[in-house]
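Notes from hallway chat w/ T.B., transcribed later so I don't forget. T.B. wanted the structure written out for a chain they're using in a teaching module, and asked if we could keep both sequence and structure tokens in one place. Agreed to drop them here.
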Amino acid sequence: MSQPGQMASIHLKQIMEALRTIEKGAYRPEMLADVLARQDEVGELARMLDSMAREVQFKERQRKLLRTVIPIGVSLSAEKDFNRLLETIVLQCQEITNADAGTLYLVEEDQRLRFMLVRNVSLGLAAGGTSGNPVTFQPIPLYKPDGEENRANVASYVALTGERVNIADAYQAEGFDFSGTKLFDQRTDYRSKSFFAFPLENQSGKVIGVLQLINAKNPESGQIIPFQPDEVLESLVMLACAALDGYIREQRLHQEIAKLRIEIDETRRARQVAEITETDYFRFLQAKASEMRRKISGQE
């Protein structure tokens, strides 16, 4: 068989493979990159298939927007439990990216990242949110004892810089300290590989939290793969920003109400004490007590 014939056969096999991935919803344009350049019937077939696949993906993204993002956006305007809403968003981000794990961090006033939600499907780990399980992980400091920024951790780096971090393999990555991650993996027989971390900002552009996804999985093989940008994920991240901002405002309001109640209770107690001490009976008791003290002093 001639060389052109061999290439045509190879490219036809690539087209058939692309067809199978379209059916499974896993098509990627680079699958047909070399075939699309052909200027013959095989190339024309590849271009038609690529166009069809992109149309299918577009409709799938629209379906995801309708099914996922829009309902959450509507809930955001009426939701009274922002904690539950944040949990829903994290779980949806995991579903959209097929991520095995997801973590939501909150930037505290003491310049630390507190773990709000932790989810890991493979380990059956669910902490924070509506799980009823407390988060036992220690907060991540944003600054070292000497005042230097703590950029060694992925989440703290994102919180400090406001930049996204997308890592294909944590064990091969440079610039970050994954010693804590590796220790966790050893203890749990897990393998943390791909990471995708987003800064969550309020309306003023201040970073108020971090959303981190771990271990995106290939839908077909289950193999851990790098995270890919996705417009539905982008929309969910925006909703997470709004929901987290709402959560923070809600918590501050609760704190102000609690403080106000304490002040009211203190005022009420002072008024009640004053009312008691001003009664004739209380003055009578005071006089009796003074008289008894004098008698006891005289005996001594």
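Follow-up for T.B.: The domain at 81-245 is CATH 3.30.450.40 (Beta-Lactamase). Might be a good example for the class.
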